[in-house]
Design brief:
Elements: H1 3-8, H2 10-29, E1 35-39, H3 45-54, E2 58-62, H4 81-94, E3 101-104, H5 108-111, E4 118-123, H6 129-142, E5 143-151, H7 163-175, E6 180-182, E7 185-189
Parallel strand pairs: 1-2, 1-4, 2-3, 4-5
Antiparallel strand pairs: 5-7, 6-7
Length: about 190
């Protein structure tokens, strides 16, 4: 089915619009003009939205842009390393004129050591339970009190088999604050 055929399907359009509106609600809930990190950048489309609407003074884009044999069912897992390198280069080019953007080509765990205090973090990297749990714990320690931690694919149950939801629910129980859920998005006020 072509892209245009998909757009002609009213149900698909409705779902796509809802997903975008849910993400927009999260962006509008993030503290503006602060320091934020997006974990899991891919091509940088959401990064561009964050930059335009949130106007952060510093935006860290964290992604290893690495082929992963472990996640063959994931969108990025099927890409050969040369393709991932091209995507990384396109992200560098896309944000080159934005001095407030710092691109970190490393895993989310490795990037932690090089990040400063955050006003918010958006988690959309490795969707396995273990990885989401680790990202929530590590980035939660970097987000200042009163800041926000949010992320994607809470309601999704694709190749990651509910790992995002489980990690988010457990993290909320541990900190004594359940996440606010907007469709597929989750959000914690810390």
């Amino acid at each position: 089915m072509s892209h245009w055929q998909k757009l002609r399907n009213p149900e698909r359009v409705k779902v796509a619009v809802k997903l975008r509106l849910d993400r927009l609600r999260v962006v509008m809930a993030l503290p503006r003009h602060g320091t934020g990190a997006e974990v899991g950048v891919w091509r940088g489309d959401f990064s561009a939205l964050l930059l335009r609407l949130n106007r952060p003074k510093r935006l860290f884009l964290v992604d290893p842009w690495a082929h992963s044999g472990e996640h063959q069912r994931a969108m990025y897992g099927r890409r050969a390393q040369p393709v991932m390198d091209e995507i990384y280069e396109s992200v560098l080019e896309r944000f080159a004129r934005h001095d407030q953007v710092v691109v970190r080509r490393e895993t989310s765990a490795d990037a932690i050591a090089n990040l400063s205090r955050l006003d918010w973090a958006y988690i959309d990297g490795d969707h396995t339970y273990e990885a989401v749990k680790a990202d929530l714990e590590a980035y939660g320690k970097l987000v200042r009190p009163g800041g926000v931690m949010a992320g994607d694919d809470y309601a999704g149950n694709a190749w990651w088999s509910g790992g995002v939801r489980q990690a988010v629910d457990e993290y909320g129980a541990r900190i004594g604050r359940p996440a606010k859920i907007f469709g597929n998005q989750f959000l914690f006020r810390l």
